[in-house]
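Internal tracking record. Fields below are filled automatically when a chain is submitted to the structure queue. Please do not edit lines marked as system-generated. If the sequence contains nonstandard residues, flag them in the REMARKS field before resubmitting.
Queue: standard
Priority: normal
Entity type: single polypeptide chain
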Amino acid sequence: MITLRNLEKFYEGGYGRSYVLRRINMEIREGEFVTIMGPSGAGKSTLLSILGMLDGAWTGEFEFQGHMVHRMKPRERVELNKKYIGFVFQSYHLIDNLTVYENLDIPLSYRNVKSSERAALVCDTLDRFHIVGKRDLFPSQLSGGQQQLVAVARAVIANPRLILADEPTGNLHSSQGREIMELFKKLNEEGVTIVQVTHSEANAAYGHRIVQLADGWILK
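SYSTEM-GENERATED OUTPUT FOLLOWS
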């Protein structure tokens, strides 16, 4: 699904280049559950942003689903993101002035899904995640665990091939965190590829393998 070759990210400064990622070579197979770990400042979230095509300022080669991302224009990368990728963030990133129903509808509107189909998909997703009773509530009316559950539902509503999760349980109690990780495990068993960034050994244990980063390098 994903191949990175000699991928690097750096910033130019008065004292030369400051590297965030160095010579990243990595493959992620379809259906894998990969965990990226490392100390703060290791480049984990930056790597996840590049995988999700939210960050285009890097060098090297990036192949995704047969598409040569490093040769694509920004607009083409955005379309690839919309088609294949769902995100889950530590801070939920729900839209405060929209209801749960409306938050779930947003990613479908980006994909130009017809309104009748969108309504059916949202209702199915509300039912699948057992949040039908929350459909008309706003994020501020939900607990942290409920907000993250909605965030995961939003990430998967358009059937992405890849989910990228950045510290998805970082703001949750342990029981809420386990619920989210069990949900990821189930989605992975259904065929969704997952790449998560975490500091949690317990969360890492849900994955198939761990990629360790330190100072921008992958540790062998």
